């Protein structure tokens, strides 16, 4: 029984790390696509637009600095990116988890890891915008603005990850019901 628990824990950790890896890979792919589209649309040469290769261009790309510098309306792009990042990882966990209770915990854990990495990138701009919106809402309701409102963006990302995990669980459940119903139906060749 102890060995089974250890294997189960390793599978959960592997599922979480895989989901976070998928999300981070999607983040880099999306930002690369956004930058390529901007580069093609601008018609400017590469070096004046993004800088020289020697100027830590790759590091700036990984942090998301290039997208912030080049795109004037970066917040909507970051919002789309955050929704898709959480969807990919959350759906992966929901579709591959062995139990619903574990899946929800795994989704929240993966969302927390992704939110940590996201605060180190350009998604921190989106999180700052979410914090200012939360503070404005608190001010409208004449509430004190507690310090935890600064975490509104990362907490929302964790929440979205958990929601997408539930969607993945539901899809897996519905698919298994359809497969079971299909296997119970007699085939047309046997009914003659």
* Beta-strand fraction estimate: under 5%
**Roughly how many Å apart are the termini?**
50 Å
Q: Main sheet?
A: none
Radius of gyration: 22 Å
Number of strands: 0
Low-confidence stretches: none
In a few lines, what is going on in this structure?
The mean pLDDT is 78.
Descriptive overview:
The protein is mainly alpha-helical and 192 residues long. 80% of the residues lie in helices and 0% in strands. The protein is built from eight helices and no strands. Helix 1 (2-42) packs across helix 6 (100-119), helix 5 crosses helix 7 (123-140) and helix 6 (100-119) runs antiparallel to helix 8 (152-184). The longest helix is centred in the N-terminal third of the chain and has 41 residues, at 2-42. The protein is globular and about 70 Å long.
Features:
mainly alpha, 0% strand
Layout of helices and strands:
Elements (H helix, E strand, L loop, with lengths): L1 H41 L3 H5 L6 H7 L1 H6 L3 H23 L3 H20 L3 H18 L11 H33 L8
Helix pairs in contact: 1-5, 1-6, 5-6, 5-7, 5-8, 6-8
């Amino acid at each position: 029984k102890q060995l089974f628990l250890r294997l189960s824990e390793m599978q959960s950790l592997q599922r979480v790390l895989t989901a976070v890896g998928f999300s981070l890979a999607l983040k880099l792919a999306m930002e690369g696509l956004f930058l390529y589209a901007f580069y093609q649309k601008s018609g400017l040469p590469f070096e004046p637009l993004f800088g020289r290769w020697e100027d830590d261009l790759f590091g700036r790309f990984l942090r998301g600095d290039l997208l912030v510098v080049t795109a004037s309306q970066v917040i909507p792009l970051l919002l789309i990116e955050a929704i898709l990042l959480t969807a990919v990882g959350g759906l992966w966990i929901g579709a591959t988890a062995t139990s619903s209770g574990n899946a929800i915990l795994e989704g929240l854990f993966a969302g927390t890891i992704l939110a940590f990495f996201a605060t180190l990138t350009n998604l921190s701009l989106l999180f700052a915008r979410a914090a200012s919106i939360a503070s404005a809402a608190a001010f409208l309701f004449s509430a004190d603005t507690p310090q935890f409102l600064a975490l509104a963006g990362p907490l929302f990302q964790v929440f979205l990850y958990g929601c997408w995990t539930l969607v993945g669980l539901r899809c897996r459940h519905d698919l298994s019901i359809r497969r079971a119903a299909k296997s119970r139906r007699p085939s047309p060749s046997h009914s003659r």
